Amino acid sequence: MAPPDPGPLPPADLVSRELPIEIIDKGTRLVRIHRSELDPIFFGSSGGNRFDDPTRQYGVCYLARTIEGAFAETCLRSVGARFVALTFLEARSFCEIEVTAPLRLVSVHGPGLAQIGATGIVTSGPHSVAQQWSSAIHDHPAGADGITYRSNHDNGELCVAMFERARDRLAAIGSTPMLSNRARLGELLARYKVGLG
Fold this sequence. Notes:
The chain is an alpha+beta fold. It has helices spanning 67-75, 86-90, 111-116, 121-124, 127-139, 182-191, and strands at residues 21-24, 29-35, 60-64, 83-84, 92-99, 103-108, 146-150, 158-163, 170-177, 195-196. Strand 7 (146-150) and strand 8 form a beta hairpin. It starts with 20 loop residues before the first strand and ends with a strand. It comes from Neorhizobium petrolearium.
């Protein structure tokens, strides 16, 4: 019996396809949850996250369009867990990241999936598949600044995997410890029906 297909890889003709680009305007604010001791704008290249570069030549910064999306992607990774560890939250902060010049992102959601020959597996399947898409999009002649995709843990929310070449168009507006606003944290826990553990 053949092993299951891990998902569609970038087609050979992707380099000649027109990418589905969406513009993020100057002044837009994105949200990031980060380790409090680190700079909020961080481009990782560990290879351990969904759209990381598989060859570790460029870094990727993960953001969300809303605080809900940031919380879902950062704090709900243990699928089916009914609690978020208090120690995990104690070590993290929220930060708004302002876009200081327009950004061009490839839509890896909605009709954008069909346009590039992908499926939702890219954002919900094996990281090895998503990383090959990241590399192909990064190296495409369109020179996009990153990828916008649906959160794997709340597909009503849009997230952004920003390529390192966009670093100079992002500015941190303020970083706040997650536990400093208990009302906001309570709303997020209630939304996802999880408690503190």
